[in-house]
Every structure is written in structure tokens, then in C-alpha cells.
């Protein structure tokens, strides 16, 4: 029997004791760990899990979600009380809600229907029970923004000096990575700023033989399975000259 259970009498006895204690005191169904990391994207729904399973002769009196502030204090987000009902606070009013209509007796997950970059931070789900006291889960939410990108070609004429022939720009969080897919003999120069924007400029000496050649911009981002391609073909117009007689 020991071989089938995979534990000796001491280990099995300890496991049974912990299971009994969980049934007596109650326990979190989700998240299981005291600290959890979650990743979400801006303009998408976000779910922060919090489900405390009460034990026999135990009841949840209040559920409170708070967000930690940089100075160490906490900003109240939403609360559910067994007699006073639900309440949203301050700038979160109308932006958040409980997943369940009865967060006191069922799951107390927090929903953010339209996530913003400013929602990034540390959240605490605080469960107040009677008669066993308070229990808490801490969730670190990271918010990414998928890139918004564009490409601007330059009107070229054969014979122009070496210079920029196309510019690619993208804004995202974390910062996107720009590259070029081309066989053209040119060089790229990238720039980025603190606002989450990056640009790449492709330069060469335009020749007639380059007209119609591929010069695609590739936008890479941690939130994309593969780089986003912005298709582009170089356009080099021929330079026509006329003599003094207009011929």
C-alpha cells in the first residue's frame, strides 16, 4: 500500500493534517500563490483572480481590492460588503467590476473591461472573514501596448544624392523593434524616445535600376508571434532633360 500511495506514514499523515487544516480554516482556490504576476494588453479586458473558499462555520464579511501607490500607500479600487453591497472608488468608478454578482459568497475576481497603461501596478485582494480574520492575495499586473506602425516612402528621382528613401515608425510598450527586409544596398538608422516610439530611416543612392524593388519594414514586438510586415516598393522616377529648343 505504501508503494501505491508514494509516501510513508509520516508524509501521508502530514498531508492529511494539512488537508484537514485547509477544510477547517478555508483556503484560496485562485490564485494559489500569495504573489502572482499577470500580463495584459491595453484596450483589452483583464481579469485579476481572487476566489476564497470558506470553511464550515465560516463566512466572508467583506472583499476589498486595493492598488499600491508609489509612496507605499494603497488606493481603494472596489469593495463588496455583506450588508452594504458593492462600491467603486474614485477614478475606478465605472471602469471596474466584480466578475460575480455575488462576490461575497462566490468568486471575487476583479474585471477591468478596457485596460489602460495606467492600470499597471500591484493589486491586493483582501478577504475579511468571520470568525477567522483576514486573508490576502497580491497580484502584479503588467500592461503592454501592441505597436501602432506606419511607413512613409520618399518621392525619388534618379540622380538624387544619397539620402533617406523611406521612414518607418512604431509606438508600443515595450518598445518595438524595427528592421528592413530588402536586397537594396542601403543603410538604416534607428531612433527611440522615452514615450515608447521608435523610428527607422533607410538611406541609399537612388538609381533607375532600383525602381519597384522591395523595401519592407518589419515591426517586431514581444506581444506579437511574428514581426508585422509593412509592404513597400521603392519608386524611382526617371529624370528627363530637354535641350534649349525644347527637343
Automatic annotation (TrEMBL):
Residues 1-26 form the signal peptide. Pfam families: C2-set_2, V-set. It is a single-pass membrane protein. InterPro entries: CD80_C2-set (IPR013162), Ig-like_dom (IPR007110), Ig-like_dom_sf (IPR036179), Ig-like_fold (IPR013783), Ig_sub (IPR003599), Ig_V-set (IPR013106), Nectin/Nectin-like (IPR051427). Gene3D superfamilies: Immunoglobulins. Keywords: Cell adhesion, Disulfide bond, Glycoprotein, Membrane, Repeat, Signal, Transmembrane, Transmembrane helix. The keyword Amino-acid biosynthesis does not apply. SMART domains: IG (SM00409). This is Ig-like domain-containing protein. It comes from Goodea atripinnis. The lineage of its organism: Eukaryota, Metazoa, Chordata, Craniata, Vertebrata.
Amino acid at each position: 500500500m505504501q508503494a501505491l500511495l508514494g509516501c510513508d506514514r509520516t508524509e501521508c499523515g502530514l498531508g492529511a493534517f494539512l488537508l484537514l487544516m485547509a477544510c477547517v480554516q478555508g483556503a484560496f482556490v485562485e490564485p494559489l500563490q500569495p504573489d502572482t504576476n499577470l500580463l495584459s494588453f491595453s484596450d483589452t479586458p483583464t481579469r485579476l483572480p481572487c476566489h476564497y473558499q470558506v470553511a464550515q462555520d465560516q463566512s466572508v464579511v467583506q472583499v476589498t481590492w486595493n492598488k499600491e501607490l508609489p509612496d507605499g500607500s494603497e488606493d481603494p479600487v472596489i469593495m463588496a460588503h455583506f450588508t452594504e453591497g458593492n462600491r467603486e472608488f474614485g477614478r475606478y468608478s465605472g471602469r471596474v467590476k466584480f466578475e460575480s454578482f455575488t462576490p461575497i459568497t462566490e468568486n471575487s475576481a476583479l474585471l477591468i473591461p478596457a485596460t489602460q497603461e495606467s492600470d499597471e501596478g500591484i493589486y491586493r485582494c483582501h478577504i475579511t472573514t468571520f470568525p477567522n480574520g483576514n486573508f490576502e492575495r497580491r497580484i502584479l499586473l503588467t500592461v503592454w501596448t501592441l505597436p501602432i506602425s506606419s511607413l512613409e516612402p520618399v518621392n525619388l528621382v534618379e540622380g538624387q544624392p544619397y539620402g533617406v528613401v523611406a521612414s518607418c515608425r512604431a509606438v508600443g510598450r515595450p518598445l518595438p523593434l524595427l528592421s528592413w527586409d530588402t536586397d537594396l544596398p542601403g543603410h538604416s538608422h534607428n531612433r527611440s524616445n522615452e514615450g515608447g516610439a521608435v523610428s527607422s530611416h533607410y538611406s541609399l543612392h537612388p538609381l533607375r535600376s532600383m525602381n519597384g524593388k522591395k523595401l519592407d519594414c518589419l515591426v517586431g514586438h514581444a506581444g506579437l508571434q511574428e514581426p508585422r510586415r509593412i509592404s513597400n516598393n521603392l519608386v524611382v522616377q526617371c529624370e528627363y532633360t530637354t535641350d534649349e529648343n525644347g527637343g
